[in-house]
Amino acid sequence: GNKQSGDGQAAGPLYLRLQDALRRAIEQRQLKPQDALPPERDLARDFGVSRITVRKALDGLVAEGLLTRRQGAGTFVAGRVEKQFAKLTSFSEDMIARGRAPSSEWLLRARGAVTPDESLTLGLSPGTPVYRFHRIRFADGSPMALEQSTIAGDCLGDVDAVSDSLYAALDAAGNRPVRALQRLRAVLFNREQAGLLQVSAGAPGLFIERRGFLDDGRAVEMTHSWYRGDAYDFVAELNAL
Ligand code: 16G
């Protein structure tokens, strides 16, 4: 059987106690962003718990976004992603540039007719077909953002053209946006959003709306993104007028 730790006093399952200890170490910066965690074997030995318990504790912290797993390299303390606010990059590119693996969970991938609201923001005539993509975006398996994109129907072959990266698919179709308008505001995640992002309801986030255009001015995308407030720093270079 598994060896149990000597102190029987502390309350709760062992994996939760290990999570609390690691969370505290991260909060008090004994473990700093980007630091590698000791191997699971060592954690198991040091805390006097089984490796299954260690694994379960780490899984929970990865889901919370406090830790990230990198294939073949181990488990690390997650750092905030520094995102250039004024660069027309994609989520996938942002993650890959930081050595983190992007992935998505699809919530919706469908063809539909443009809504009045979309037709105004995208400048599309009523009745034009559009593609809709709703996703949870992950980095190294930790949820980072929710995104809802509406793409002008003539910019993509089909919904299936998007395997993971929307911009890669638009690029392949020769329709990657070259210019965008973007606005951002603070939000508190509602219960549903919080559930999808594995944060508590009411946790802070950033809502970003991007409208992307082709060289000739035609609108390609309208994307609503909800980024986790605890996962990002937005940075920009400013020049005097
Ligand atoms: C980013 C963009 C979003 C775009 C997506 C494409 C912001 C605020 N939003 O999240 O508009 O649709 O990237 O990412 O940067 P993908 O190519 O990885 O699907």
TrEMBL record:
GO BP, sorted A to Z: negative regulation of DNA-templated transcription
Keyword Transferase: no
Pfam families reported for this sequence: GntR (PF00392), UTRA (PF07702)
InterPro entries with a match to the protein in the record: Bact_HTH_transcr_reg, Chorismate_lyase_/UTRA_dom_sf, Tscrpt_reg_HTH_GntR, UTRA, WH-like_DNA-bd_sf, WH_DNA-bd_sf
Keyword Mitochondrion set for record: no
Keywords: DNA-binding, Transcription, Transcription regulation
Protein name per its UniProtKB record: UTRA domain-containing protein
